[in-house]
Every structure is written in C-alpha cells, then in structure tokens.
Amino acid sequence: MIVRLCAATAAGLVLFSGAAHAYPIKGAAELTHNEIYKKGKLPKVTCKLNKGTTRASTTKYVNDLIGCLTTAWKKTAPDITGVKVGFVDSGEKRSCSGVEIAGSFAQQCFSFIRVKLAADWIRTKDDSKVFAAVTAAWSGIVQERTGIGLAWQALPNGGEQPEIDEQLRRLRLQSDCLTGVSVKSLGRTVMDWKPMLKAMDPPEFAKYKWDGKLTNRVKWIQEGHKAGRPGACNTWKAASSKVT
Q1: Considering only CA atoms, which of 8, 4, 29 is closest in space to residue 96?
Q2: What is the pLDDT of residue 4?
Q3: In the chain, where are the structural domains located?
Q4: Cα–Cα 20 to 30 A to 152, which of 13, 16, 32, 207?
Q5: How far is CA 230 from CA 61, 75, 99, 139, 208, in A?
Q6: Residue 96: is its pLDDT beyond 80?
Q7: Are the beta carbons of 74 and 102 closer than 8 angstroms?
Q8: What is the pLDDT of residues 36-61, one digit of tens each?
Q9: What is the strand order of the sheet 112-116 is part of?
Q10: pLDDT tens per residue, range 110-163
Q11: What pTM does this model have?
C-alpha cells in the first residue's frame, strides 16, 4: 500500500473532505481507469534467491529480490526502475506507519522501501516471511509510481468513516492482488495463500483492521496470481461486497 502506511490515523495522513464519493469509486480515473490496467502479463523472470542466516546474506537476499521485481515490472511500469532500499538499525522499532514493530519489517515509504532485519528473519533459512513482506512492499511502489497512491490520498470522503475505511481497503486489496501478479512472474509456488498474507505485515498491524476479510484477501491475491497482469487488480470498480 502507499507507504504501506495504511491507516490515516497511524500515518498522520489527512484524507481530503468533500462530497462523499459513491460506492464504488467514481470520478477518479487514475484509480478506476489507470493505464497500468491495459498492460499485459508480466514476463516470467528467473529469480535465483539464496537466503542465508547472516545479516550480510539476508541483506543480499533483499537486494536480489528487489532486482528481480524490477526486472518483472520494468516494461509494465517504466517508472518503476531505481527503487532504493533503506536498511535501518536492528534496534529501530518505529515503522513508516508510525506503529512500533519489535521484529523485522519491509515497508514502502513513499518512493523507497524501508527494511529492518532482525533475528526473526536473519536466523532462519526459510525465506517465506521476508519474501512476502518485501514483495508486498513492492506492490506499494507500483501503486506510488503509477499515480494510484496520490489519487487515493486525494479522494473525497465527506468525513464519513465507513467510506474512508472502504477506500483504504480498496487500496490494500489492490496491493494484495499486485503481489499475486509479482509472485506469478517470479515463478514462486504458493500452496496456501493465508500464511503469505499474514506474513506481509508485522503482527503489530493485525489489531488495526486495515485489510479486508481474509476470504476477500485470498480472492484478490489469487486473482492477481491467476491472471499475471495488473488489469485483474482494479479493486476501485469492484462492488463494495468484494472489498469488505
């Protein structure tokens, strides 16, 4: 999501007030008719990743994964190149969203990805959590570079909390779907999407209820993976029942 900052309250982000938009979103072409939806499938990318159990090897893993994602998306979203990764000290707890996180995290912060490598990622050879978090953060970069992020921030909402919440869920669910597109391009096999969805954000985020229902999250990430193209991820035109 944009800055994977997700909640207006946590991020200190103010959504502009005005006449409330109808559900689903109308009058915001950058969201409902973005040029990225017209693009075809992402290419298949050979991504050789080796997750060691040291800080150096885990740092290399993250950078290699970002390189693979850049290759996967560079023709579909030409402005996606040059994404920077900022590694923070292992003792840092404050995330881009303002929420304190005890363990590792990867978050999209405006135009770059901010990563904290702690023992929970470093000491295991299982790369599933770092892969999920970094790939999800990348989806926020796609949204930011294609103008979706700014268009979301500019949506009128009339100060109505239910509408603000739904707009945020549409953004989050689109990010899930775009993550599925990336996973397909990189040839990653996922037998069960639920653990991956859980690993995309640190456990501290769970209490904020920023995402849609798990059933809808699974549906959207599966849609992205099945189609392999961003056109499958237009949550902005979906019925409200699809983004609860």
Answers
A1: 4
A2: 37
A3: 18-243
A4: 207
A5: 25, 12, 29, 10, 27
A6: yes
A7: no
A8: 999 999 999 999 999 999 999 999 99
A9: 84-88, 112-116, 105-109
A10: 899 999 999 999 999 999 999 999 999 999 999 999 999 999 999 988 778 999
A11: 0.90
Three-state SS for the chain is CHHHCCCHHHHCCCCCCCCCCCCCCCCCHHHHCCHHHHCCCCCCCCCCCCCCCCHHHHHHHHHHHHHHHHHHHCCCCHHHCCCEEEEECCCCCECCCCCECCCCEEEEECCEEEEECCHHHHCCCCCHHHHHHHHHHHHHHHHHHCCHHHHHHCCCCCCCHHHHHHHHHHHHHHHHHHHHHHHHHHCCCCCCHHHHHHHCCCHHHHHHCCCCCHHHHHHHHHHHHHHCCHHHHCHHHCCHHHHC
Q: Are 4 and 96 in contact (CB under 8 A)?
A: yes
Token pair recorded at residue 48: 């050789």
Tokens representing residue 43 in the block: 């290419």
For residue range 105-121, what is the model confidence (pLDDT) as tens digits?
A: 999 998 999 999 999 99
The pair of structure tokens assigned to 17 is: 């007030």
Tokens 């969805």, residue located: 197
Amino acid residing at 156: P
